[in-house]
Amino acid sequence: MLYLFLPLLAPALLLAVAVRARRSPGLRPAALPRLAEYAGLGAFVVSVMSAGLLMMEGPGSSPLLGLLGVGLSVRLDVVSVVMLCLVSFIGWIVLRYSATYMDGEARQGAFTGWMAATLAAVLLLVMSGNLVQLVLAWTATSLCLHQLLLFYRDRTTARRAARKKALVARASEVSLAIAALLLIMSYGTSDIATILATAAPDLLTITAAVLIALAAVLASAQFPTHGWLTEVMEAPTPVSALLHAGVINAGGFLLIRFADVMLAAPAVMALLVMLGGFTALFGGLVMLTQSAVKTSLAWSTIAQMAFMIMQCGLALFPLALLHIVAHSLYKAHAFLSAGEAVANVAAIRRPGPVAVPSGRNVMQAFGIGIVIYALVGAIFGFDGKSVQAIALGVILIFGVAYILAQGLADAAPGALTRRTVIYATATSVSYFLLQLAALKLTAGTLPATPAPGPLEWALILLALVSFGAVAVAQATFPLWAMHPAAAGLRVHLSNGLYANAIFDRLLGGWSKRTQL
């Protein structure tokens, strides 16, 4: 099991940079930014090598330092390796981008050090083999990120947002710590592999599942504690990229890592479906009303994390892991290229008239989308697919139908119609292929999706109706956009239905303070 030492080199490289940064925390700290970039690249190479060793040696979990399973340990399996490769790759890109972006800042060295420390904490989190290390790494990630969010300490809005994030983070950390204590009491060990292998639906395990779910929901910026994520925009762009493409995924990772524990509490899973589904619809609608690019991306992250929470609630853990990978890569690119995208759009001449789909076109789009999904599913085979996964595909097709409606509009050119049909087909094929790959990759590591009971069936139908109704409303919006009620709705949605303001008031107005 000596190969389990290898993954520890990844956070060690980054921690070395963080320590080095203490010697030159100021302006243009010599070779530190490039050293950080090379450390990020080295961490990614180590992660890829760990993936190769996993394929050759198989999964493993072993304490490397400490007693009674408490101390430094590594759990190497598909989940941890995927997260290691993802986090280290994004970290490398962000560190490389930061070397130029932060050039000329008075505290560039300190920024680089805290960025490296945050990445090291996340890597230690995803490879944790015992509960104590997991809780400590979870806490360290929040504390290091807090320093990055406060990079511009003189800005009142930055201090207010960081304070709110800190409060939510402390609640998440306490929930996870109590859950870890309950699991240790129930199973007599802090070793995660042992706990997952013997998880049973007793009182302590169910209570721990509730607290794990709470910790994940708070960390993932779910309703109604989502407001901090939309307010932390005063931090430099590399921080936003790291937060939205990396750190925010910790909640989803936590649910995936403790999948066997979560399955012992079906009621908790049902709550995750309801909360995730509602927040996904809420976040998606609010996102459409935002004029600022970074704020719109923040609401997009809330919606995407909510959809991932819903996937976990439906016990689709392999697909949730796939979602983390896809969203992280997309969101890192979105934040790092946001400035260039705005400039490119501003340079484009005003487009001509937009083809507006009629109600008939929208119904045609949904019908064609469902037919395409059914045909592709028949080719790949629905046999062996869980009801939850099939329903998730239908929800995906609802989104594709919105694009199809634009191509089917009476005034749309034929080339656009053909292109949207091709996109819809490619999306359906990709869904089935990626689903097969995720299931095969995680077989034996993540539990299979159980057959739905009456409650699960009710939640699946509710999700299909809700997402379908919102998709239809979005596709037909140009037809009723001039109604007075639409203007009022847009105002309310642009303010997030005032949920964040209510949350602030319930907290006693603490977020109005200016001192830390």
TrEMBL record:
Family per similarity comment: Belongs to the inorganic carbon transporter (TC 9.A.2) DabB family.
UniProt keyword Transport, yes or no: yes
Functional description taken from the UniProt entry: NDH-1 shuttles electrons from NADH, via FMN and iron-sulfur (Fe-S) centers, to quinones in the respiratory chain. The immediate electron acceptor for the enzyme in this species is believed to be ubiquinone. Couples the redox reaction to proton translocation (for every two electrons transferred, four hydrogen ions are translocated across the cytoplasmic membrane), and thus conserves the redox energy in a proton gradient. Part of an energy-coupled inorganic carbon pump.
Gene name of this polypeptide: dabB
Organism, as annotated: Phaeobacter gallaeciensis
Domain called NADH:quinone oxidoreductase/Mrp antiporter transmembrane: residue spans: 128-343
Database matches in Pfam families: Proton_antipo_M, Proton_antipo_N
Membrane topology: Multi-pass membrane protein
Residues spanning the membrane: 36-55, 67-94, 114-146, 167-187, 193-218, 239-259, 265-289, 301-326, 361-382, 388-409, 421-438, 458-480
Main location (coarse class): membrane
A GO-annotated cellular component: endomembrane system
HAMAP family: DabB
Protein name per UniProt: Probable inorganic carbon transporter subunit DabB
Keywords in alphabetical order: Cell membrane, Membrane, Plasmid, Transmembrane, Transmembrane helix, Transport
One Gene Ontology molecular-function label: NADH dehydrogenase activity
Membrane in keyword set: yes
Taxonomic placement: Bacteria, Pseudomonadati, Pseudomonadota, Alphaproteobacteria, Rhodobacterales
Protein's cellular compartments: Cell membrane; Endomembrane system; Membrane
NADH-Ubiquinone oxidoreductase (complex I) chain 5 N-terminal domain boundaries: 68-111
Assembly behavior: Forms a complex with DabA.
